[in-house]
Amino acid sequence: MSDFLDVTTSLTARRWVGPTDDLIRQAEALAQHTGLPVALCQTLARRGVTAGEAERFLDPKLKDLLPDPLTLKDMGKAAERFLVALKAQQRIAVFADYDVDGGTSAALLLTWLRDMGHQATLYIPDRIDEGYGPNEPAMAALAQDHDLIVCVDCGTLSHAPIAAAKGADVIVLDHHLGGETLPECVAVVNPNRQDESGDLAHLCAASVVFLMLVEVNRLMRAEGQKGPNLMAALDLVALATVADVAPLIGVNRALVRQGLKVMAGRHRIGLRALADVARMDTAPTSYSLGFLLGPRINAGGRIGAADLGARLLATQDPNEAQALAERLDQLNTERREIENAVREAALAQAEARGLDGPLVWAAGEGWHPGVVGIVASRLKESSNRPAIVIGFDGDEGKGSGRSISGVDLGASIQKLAAEGLLVKGGGHKMAAGLTVMRDKLEPAMERLSELLAKQGAGDGGPADLKLDGMLMPGAATIDLITRLEAAGPFGAAAPAPRFAFPSCAIHFARRIGESHLKISFSDGLGPRLEAICFGAYDGALGPALEAHGGARFHLAGRLEINTWGGRQSVQLRLEDAARA
């Protein structure tokens, strides 16, 4: 594969890779058959969309893509038991994980039940005191006062805690990797059970909960009853899908696309309050879900009270929503400060150990367990390697990991737990959690490196920058960006189109804040474009462009519409540059 624009080492030390000759031919054929812009066709070709599929791909319909809930094992049992509890006015508890997927899953159930006139109990474990998932004391206590416990975004590996829920029935609605055996309970609905086909493995837990409610509504219709409007709940499903970094393929695209439309209506009091404190002044996008709303909801589970996010999403009280949103915003600011300190220490340790192996890892005393996952993500991004970050409290360490495409981290972590190197561990392909004793740390990380190396981790250098093609500044219009957005939503497994602007002159460059850069550029023939580069001064990119000295640069990034003062303009989200 040749270097795009002959860029072998950019200012961020990456090689630029453009579309293959075959992809270029496919894009040109798509443009001829459909009349769509070539830039859009380049994006469609990369996603494997043919001319006959283009129209449906650009307008995904939930009615065409939503699977029959009963294709998931145990779904019928779960829906029937849930409906029995509602009819008999039994006491229901919802046990949820403390992240966005868990919080939205809980809110889906709580609001659905409330619409049916039924109040349920919410229980979310404390990250530090209780850790992830059901635990025996909590489940035993809930079982004393409830007839049904629904575990969402957790529970698949919780054999002993579920067994401790004596006297209550338990339903698990989850998506984390299952083990060889399942806990004994009424139902374990999970597209990542070992006996599932894997066709729906990309669903997050909130989507599994949504599908169960679809089936419950169907059962009610068969009896002449009407359930709550589930389309109004898609804002929660969209938020969970994006924030949990679920791949935006198949039905996930339709769920997020429709969910964004629902969210734009600002009907959910909690999300409206959160959007306001996050200063979201435009229609929601997958970016705002993943980088503005998601981190704030997660902040409660990371460093504050674990149930803040779920309570915000489920509340009907505007005053409570405002107070919760402000508290989460404050916690998110505190989380950033804690994260920065851990990130600096972890990066220094990882660099000293070496970033060229199959695994990058770091461990430290007192590192807050609420931020180790975010720091692992930063290490993964900077090294293009799976990364593990562990915080120790005495002899026990709790850690989190993030993986790269094509390397199944969750399965490797499960194998380590089965081999006795971890106290416990699990997750899915791209993310995992673990608990390890200090005396097992080095052998566990060594073994994990071996397992990941077998999957190809460590084979490459810094990640190549993949480009969809070339554009001239004059072709970058609001109309083109609007057309490109039809190929979205963009996110995990569906990156936004990225283009190179060749041989451009920098007309002005200005540092913004501590590490950001704003520039204006053109090719000398067409109009000038503005670009923003976040974190430019964290590396060589910012200093080089600010001190351009009249030199020309190839510029690469993603196009977006910038709205300011009621006016719209084209802006490049600059990601990389190379001397022309």
Topology:
Blueprint: E1 16-17, H1 21-34, H2 38-46, H3 54-58, H4 62-65, H5 75-87, E2 92-96, H6 100-115, E3 121-123, H7 136-145, E4 148-152, H8 159-163, E5 169-173, E6 187-189, H9 205-222, H10 234-243, H11 251-264, H12 269-277, H13 286-303, H14 308-314, H15 318-353, E7 360-365, H16 372-383, E8 387-393, E9 396-402, H17 409-418, E10 424-427, E11 431-437, H18 441-454, E12 465-466, E13 469-470, H19 478-485, E14 499-512, E15 516-522, E16 529-533, H20 541-546, E17 552-564, E18 567-579
Parallel strand pairs: 1-12, 2-3, 2-4, 4-5, 5-6, 7-8, 13-14, 16-18
Antiparallel strand pairs: 8-9, 9-11, 10-11, 14-15, 14-17, 15-16, 17-18
GO biological process, one term: DNA repair
Organism: Celeribacter baekdonensis
Domain DDH: 91-241
Q: Could you say which overall geometry the principal axes of the C-alpha atoms support?
A: globular
The structural class is alpha/beta
- What is the CATH C-level name of the largest domain? Alpha Beta
Quaternary class = single chain
CATH overall fold name of the largest domain = inorganic pyrophosphatase (n-terminal core)
In what order do the strands lie side by side in the largest sheet? 3-2-4-5-6
N-to-C CA distance? 20 Å
What is the beta-strand fraction? 15-25%
Total separate domains: 4
Biggest β-sheet: count, sense, barrel? 5 strands, parallel
CATH arch. level architecture of the largest domain: Alpha-Beta Complex
Mean pLDDT, nearest integer? 95
Q: Fraction of residues in helices?
A: 40-55%
- Count all strands and give the number: 18
Low-confidence stretches: none
CA-atom Rg in angstroms: 24 Å
* Total helical elements: 20
